[in-house]
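The protein record minuted underneath.
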Amino acid sequence: MARYAACVAAKSPEKVTDILTQDFRATSYGNGLRNLVRANEECAKQVGTRGERLRGSNLPFAAALAEALMRGNGAPLNVRLAKAASGKEASTFSASDKVAMCVARSSPDDVANLFATDPGSDAEADSAAKLEPVIGLCSQDARLDTGVAGLRAIIATASFRLLAAQGR
């Protein structure tokens, strides 16, 4: 998924940015992601899938797109997130999204460390565990029911919107 999303993000960065900054509950968001897949079918072929398209849910794809675009900027991610934390507010669209945005603003070093790990790795799990105290504070002890992959995904999309709100 990461290689596929990197290809799509490289070929359509403006479209990806436009979609990822929208309300993910809106029909236009899901349609936009589907249109990106259709417009970039060659990316699926480049990463070695047998069919023309990868199939899956919107959140992991959106998160992989967000991570690809955040990596595309030469400045260290933790520095960009730290600067963004004191900048313009970015919209949030759900309770878990609000927690993810709080985490992105509160712990830029740990968030950047999470995105520096390989999905599914022990290092990813360790990085996610280091975020648990911040998640507890941001959620005000409400339960955030997600695994490591889901946590990474919601923090990735929130972090991207935070940076986009600053124009970075």
